[in-house]
Amino acid sequence: MHTRNNKNGGRRIAHKLVCALVVAISTYAVQLSAAAQPAPAAAGKSEMHANVSNDATMKMSKSMDDMQKNMRQIKMSGDLDHDFAMMMRVHHQGAIDMAQAEVDAGKDPTMIMTAKKIIAAQKKEIAQFDDWLKKHSMK
Questions:
Q1: Please, are residues 120 and 111 in contact by the beta-carbon 8 Å criterion?
Q2: Nearest-CA neighbor of 95 among 58, 63, 57?
Q3: Can you list the domains of the chain with their CATH numbers?
Q4: pLDDT in tens, 45-91
Q5: For residue 39, what is the DSSP state?
Q6: CB-based contact 64:29 (threshold 8 Å)
């Protein structure tokens, strides 16, 4: 007999939704990364600058690939709260790595400042996830 308050059933559904959401966000970000082709070097810009841009784009793309690989390696425990913290921790680290590529090689001051804010916010949230995981370790 099904009830509306079936806690385990609700957790399973919520767990599936979180996993689907994380995969969807990651997939969308990879598509954006793949679609973002580095702009050709403008007249007067050095080849070195073009290489820095390409290197930064490659670094950002690698950050995305690494994040997805690391997320796939997390074994789901069935505890939605734990799995959410684990997945989001990796996701946030990916955001930090991508934002760092912008800080290192970006040209637009607004985007660089945004990237720095992202790094600070994501580090704070990772610390919150780490603290929660420490207090709620799976034994």
A1: no
A2: 63
A3: 7-37+47-135 (1.20.1260)
A4: 445 445 556 887 888 788 888 888 888 888 899 999 999 999 999 99
A5: P
A6: yes
